[in-house]
């Protein structure tokens, strides 16, 4: 049986992280990972059974090639335009790992990265028209005016081709303000089938008040969505498909690396839901995938299906031997 | 005063462990330790005052020599037959370190290791006849038919020589099934004086029902044991000597490395009990040793006696200076 | 606006620490930090806005230069007498990192270090007469008879010059006994304006009974102090200035490295109080600085002011991006 | 233009290497790489422009998956039968890195690995019939009787399908003796088109005397080969196609890791020769690829085409910026 | 005696270097250093006795603060304008460490860094007017039009204040082409007193033909220089002051890190020459400093004066104890 | 056959070494080894077949225990007096690893270590009277007046018991001056049977002029020695037994760690010579052992006999597999 094909479009960055307990100021080594919201979704989905492709634009340098190598490691197929221009660059971010009550600190250095100039025309378009689902996040249109346009064309092309369009709001306050985000996202949402949104972002950015259930119902109605998933941090997630709502609590974890938790959630959900599992089953896999991500270093959920099964079966042993 | 002599016979393996948070699939370094149930017992017992010897069979290669070096580091005397055959090999296991709710994953690569061919005749026999106590575990007879025979001869020889025979059931479901285990162990138990068994294994493997106290009493009676110690995970341990039973709770720990906890418990117990401490005192030392093991990397309890004393005295300071 | 000038005099040592979970006996690498009670205070204070100088005596070797380099890293100005003698040495200490219930173990190798011969005359005296505040701790007079004399002259010179004199009792039982400490400290306290003392040390060493409030009031009265701060471990701290007392609880932390917590507390307090913040505000900053220190490796609090602000504002996010 | 397709069949192992200067006996970390003669050829060839697939049989465990992940990293397509049996295992080897005059020491632990049971029938056969070239080495038939048969069928199937069959003698004295090797290889050579052989192996194993030119000519004639490449260590390599012979000296290197040099040579040669470059050009690329391999850690040549070009152009700068 | 004051103005970057033998594509850690041509000169000069200040513009982030921390470590005083703008960034470069015949590969990501907007007006000007010497390199005006202007004003201001102006051509072909460089540098040279130039750059960029002696004499005459130093790689360096020329060969080294060799040369030269040592003495110290730099990791020459003395005295022992 | 028993008495220190290319000033990790001239001899001799014991005095702390653990790792038996005094300390030394032309720098911190108070009476005396050979070096009597006396008693006791006494002059200019050394050594030499001395030390310290052959003959005659071995750095070594002299050149090496070369030479020599090999054979083994030491990190020669054999047989392959 051929698995469903998922296409994810977005920016991935080189993450340069300090070792635990070492401030950026004094560290003399940095751990390197490749990460990006949509790529993270692709990795989780691929590892749980989908056939995932990651579409992007990268500098034509060994640093850019590091990104495609990273995705191939996860068996995600990279479909990439290579930026040969002189000032082609890969976005990076510094991560100073925290420990409570000191939060982890992210310092972006992503302005002017190659993807900010990516037009729909130069991208490999086949993936979008042959996909079962296409995923983008609200980070992408926040990066440049060009990418607003490109995102819009990807969503409409995908929808026209019969693919399910998936959108994760993923609001980042240091990339744009709520008003700009609202204006742009409001234009994109009519082409979206499945929406993931944090309860907080629904309020701050999209201006929806009320509890998760209310917000989900209102968004579903206003944008004629197939499915809305509202996440509320440690309070879990709620999905609404117009008829029924389902709620899923989080699995408690020992947190090794919190980055990418939300993306793992989306990837875990899609891997189940696109293979015709029920919404409650998909939500449960989403929560388990998110929990597993927190136990693994890096942005991507380097997991195996049996890890998810073990959590869902409730038979986790301290040592399995 | 000469300390009591403890002989432990069994397999030790090279443990190849991923750094925390790094899956086997992507790691590019592995931390190396030497471990094995009986060797771990010998280390803990030696460090707490016994004179311990570890008997085994190893490949005559630098990899095999790594094992004897490891035991000498702990001042445990290795008494080893060197396997000069072409296909001599050291068993290994891969350890993928977990973080809740992801359990640690052990992948064994131990089939056909040199010890599986070890006959009683080729082993250095002096240790068994000159020992105060001889320790084996249920892992050893699970490894090969030859080792069932060898284990049996060791136990009967030791008993005949007046040594106390100690046996830890240590059931491993990936080495054999409960029925095979029961059949073999039932044959061995008549030569055993002191039995350590997990409550769960007593039920699954040995077919004893009831609470820990009942199981201990029944085993004591059926096999004419001197002492039975039944461990029940976080619920602690119970010892029964035919007259009195004693219960010991676990000490809570920050867990750095859970492997070898049970072996440290046995080693800590024997170090006290063989030097004529009372059963409750031996159980308390066992629990403290097990707790300390969890705070130290590797299979072996690289501890100092004052660490145990500090826990037993209840005067642990965050920093001792 | 010129920040207040703080001078700290004391010994700093090379700290040689085992990696987590690795006993001293088996480790083959040691992490190196520079630390010392007064230097730690200077670092925290400088990072939170004061202009700090650290005065000491060091061996004229690359190992000694490592110490000044370390302080310059934190922008603390080192004012140092270089010991050119043949047996000049830097004190060191080994730190075996613990994990509950195994405490961290400190093994000092500091006897005969260069600072133990430091006389007031050979030290650069300008700092003491030009300072707004001068800080010493009870560790320094415990190191040698020479240093009792030097400490005494520093305090009286500073007081005569109009500087605020700050003293942290910091009793270390492996350097002297309570009686010797009491005798020496009693002689020094008349020249002290601001006293920091652990509740336990007030009782054991200074012979003051009662709850923190009583101890603070009694010390304030007996030594005509401007301010007394009594710390009671996890129960927090209490300050008394003769009129009002203020209490500050601790901030809970995930502890990466507990060493230097008390010094960070003092440094955080002074940075606020010497810039005319109120005592409650200074106590709160002290507690936040101490909490942050516990999340960072090494003796020194390698923090940024916004980390403190974030805790005081109560808006710590798991990931700030 | 579609690049030529190269299929390589063989065993890859987990290489567990000590850090420089650290003997196996005392090391507590091992660096992990994946390596195997045929896989190494595939990597070098893919990185220099071919479309390479690596065919093998692996244990269905995370350790086995580590191997496919490694090949995907190099963009080599793994086509693998997963061994689900209980005693499925991945071969490993320990590498104790040397420094002159101490040679690097390899200790194999590869007996009974999953590939030793691989039959032609269970392998994915499409690769062999759709390839432009199929590569195997003399290591594979040395591993088991089954693999002699499988290798034979692969070669004959490939030849029947019109693919160029490539064989590297790669004699390993610890796997078999010269007589057994000669007997087996003599049976396989009639299906070979292109033969790589070390001058020393030609003599010891295949019983051909004389200088490289004589050996090449005799082998060419006796087995009706298209091409023979005889390598003579630091004396370089000689190729003979029945008409002309070409000689290529080695490029001097600073050696970081000598393992895989010969495989990189073969991969570099095939990448050029299969895209219709002349034999001298292919030999030169082979030598450059081999030289580059020696400057990179691991068994595989993690190179970029411009590195080869830079050597061939003779314009290597100490720092390129 | 107050040491001469040297001011260096220029960009420093975060250098992100792969461990030896590990390509960028596969590395998962990067070693971090701070480096930049002028800062490197300041470090070498300060360590050999000058009082050096480094002037620059940096992003007001923990990443920017890492740079000032680095210079303070070397006791170089950082005088920095903090860039508070939203897109403030620190330039970085990736270094893939080579091994012959594979050269080290530098990949710059420095476009749009904060310093490219630095105007003379916003810089702290006191350093330039109070300096004994001011150093800039040809890299700075290559970075932006603004910096051409700023460099010009720095040189003329310094010259007007009576400081010696020092310029190192340091042509980088990936920043500009020879024609642009020539045009800009020709405008700057009239304000230069001491010129360092690679023989190759003198020809390619400045259009001067002939051997080192001829080039030096012609440059000296054309620009009314006090001193010209022409470096010719492994052939050493030649200095000409209008009257005499002096030649200095290189000291052979075991090269650990070649980056910063030229800057260490300039720093070593200035430290001697500005303290009134003769030109041959200064050249010899320059060559020794450059040689030492090659034995130390990072861009900066973390040396001690006695290391230089030991080379100049010719009494280097393998182990000094 | 029981191997000859060798006893070595002397100080071992904790060596704290910077990673390659990292100065002491900036390093934040140190590699830890245990080393000492006589212990190094014991290790090499034990590994090549003798039964070696190392006698010393150590602080009764985990740091002291690290030393005995280190020797047990090499299967050398530690016979140690534990110093329970308050100021008991282990000597240490810092090693800043060099790279030509920068020499490695040793900074000792060994004054007042526990061994400096070791009297003959408190040492375990059995080893000295039961040994076949007793080894001490000239470092030991340089450490304290007590140790001059102790060394003298050890040599005379050993000689009286019929053991061969072995002495390595090992002059260290930072411990004493040539005159003091000469006076002390002259008193000790009458009890010495076998003398190792560097040609340079024979001249500087013992005041013997002439070429190696002359010096050896003169020393042999003057002190009625059984054997004199004079080493002349890269020029090799010469042995003279009163009848014949034998010369041995050095084996060239890639040097990883030069410390302990001379001690490995002595250990390799004794392992052969004490088992009745001829002097030329013993010298050759000494040279091979010294060469191997240079390829291995740490002070001790962690070698295997087959490594020596491989060098002596002249069949070293780059990779042995």
Number of strands of chain A: 14
User: What name is given to the CATH topology of chain A?
Assistant: UDP-N-acetylmuramoyl-L-alanine:D-glutamate ligase
Please give the CATH architecture of chain A.
Answer: 3-Layer(aba) Sandwich
Strand content of chain A: 15-25%
Largest interface: A-E, 29 and 29 residues
The end-to-end distance of chain A, rounded to whole angstroms, is 32 Å
What key attributes describe this structure?
homohexamer; 321 residues; alpha/beta; UDP-N-acetylmuramoyl-L-alanine:D-glutamate ligase; nine-stranded mixed beta sheet; four-stranded mixed beta sheet; 10 helices; 14 strands; 34% helix; 23% strand; globular; PfkB domain protein (chains A, B, C, D, E, F)
Give a quick precis of the structure:
Chain A is 34% helix and 23% strand. Chain A is α/β, with parallel strands linked by helices and 321 residues long. Chains in contact: A-B, A-C, A-D, A-E, B-C, B-D, B-F, C-E, C-F, D-E, D-F, E-F.
